[in-house]
Every structure is written in structure tokens, then in C-alpha cells.
Design brief:
single chain, 199 residues, alpha+beta, Immunoglobulin-like, 13% helix
């Protein structure tokens, strides 16, 4: 990377880069980085390189989360499903009150833990709803099952980069009670008729 590219990356935001048409490279774990045509990374990843004005968050995020420039972080070291620590491979998702998915975290390293999970804010400058707005209560699912918030923090979208510890639990399904049929009672006045089956 040239010194100029390094300075651009340090001093300009994504929005400014998009406005001047600088190409961005999606780098796993690091996000979008500006690159120059002479950068060695361009040759290796040319299919991922798009002009910044054509970067579509929806196409880069098939899981439904659209990253924006504002987010809060949720984490837990004590999240359970049916009272058992959440398993590796489970997926925790966050939703705003309108049902827009604003965060997702696949459990990778420790049972019972998730996060840091970014929960993104809605960008008021776009026509789509990307996520929460300040003051929104966030709700969660674990593997698409509704999760109950156990605290200790309240899952409220507060301000950019806030960190909240929110333990979750998926409660075991409660069996739906089936009405009981009272046993027949015999009385001296009642007659019981039974069918006769002939073979």
C-alpha cells in the first residue's frame, strides 16, 4: 500500500471515499479498505473490487444485516437455550421494534458466549430501514427462537459504540394443556349401550 493510500484510509470516512469514487476492497474482518490500481491486493481480489459508488450493502450482507456508520455492541458470557449454555454454531440475531434485523452473531469460540455483536442504526439518509433508532428496545432470537432478556443491561439502542451485557435464554416450550375428558359415571338409572362387533 502506498503512503497516499494509507493516509486516505486513516483520514477519510467511507462516505467521503464513495463521493470521490475511490475503489474499495472488502477485506474479511476489516471491512472496506481503499485501494489503488497499483496495489498488489487488487490483482488477487479483482472480482471483489467495485467502484465505491456501486457498493451495495444488501448484496454484501445476505444474512439481512445492513451495516451503517452507527451501532451499539451486545455481548454475553451467560446465554442459554433451554437452560443449557448456547452451543457453538448457534446464531444470535438482533431486531429493532419494527422487525428489521440489525445484528447477527454466529457462536464460534465458547459455549454460552456471544458477541461482540454490532446492532446497527438506521441511516436517515437512505430510503431503506437498516436498523434501530436511539431509544429502541432490541429483541433477540437464538436459532430463530425468541429469546428472553435476562440482563444485567437493558437492550436499548442508546448511542454509537455503547457496550451492553445482555444475557439471553430461550425458554423450553410449554406444552399446551389438552382438556381432560371426564370419565363416564354410572348411575342406577343410566343404561350403557355397547356396540357388538361380529366377525
Amino acid at each position: 500500500m502506498t503512503r497516499r493510500e494509507s493516509n486516505i484510509r486513516k483520514s477519510l470516512s467511507w462516505g467521503v471515499l464513495a463521493a470521490v469514487g475511490v475503489a474499495l476492497l472488502l477485506v474479511a474482518g476489516r471491512g472496506f479498505l481503499p485501494v489503488g490500481a497499483s496495489s498488489p491486493a487488487v490483482a488477487a481480489a479483482r472480482p471483489l473490487l467495485l467502484p465505491a459508488t456501486h457498493v451495495s450493502p444488501q448484496s454484501e450482507n445476505p444474512n439481512g444485516v445492513i451495516p451503517t456508520t452507527q451501532w451499539v455492541n451486545f455481548r454475553s458470557q451467560n446465554t442459554t437455550v433451554y437452560g443449557t449454555p448456547i452451543a457453538i454454531g448457534a446464531v444470535v440475531r438482533a431486531y429493532d421494534p419494527g422487525g428489521t434485523q440489525c445484528g447477527e452473531f454466529p457462536v464460534k469460540d465458547h459455549v454460552g458466549w456471544y458477541g461482540l455483536m454490532a446492532c446497527y442504526a438506521d441511516d436517515p439518509n437512505t430510503p431503506i430501514d437498516e436498523g434501530a433508532t436511539p431509544g429502541d428496545m432490541i429483541h433477540f432470537t437464538i436459532d430463530d427462537m425468541p429469546a428472553v432478556v435476562l440482563g444485567p443491561d437493558t437492550p436499548k439502542w442508546t448511542q454509537n459504540a455503547a457496550l451492553m451485557v445482555v444475557d439471553l435464554n430461550v425458554l423450553s416450550p410449554t406444552p399446551t394443556p389438552v382438556g381432560t375428558i371426564p370419565a363416564p359415571t354410572a348411575s342406577p338409572q343410566s343404561t350403557l349401550y355397547l356396540p357388538i362387533i361380529r366377525r
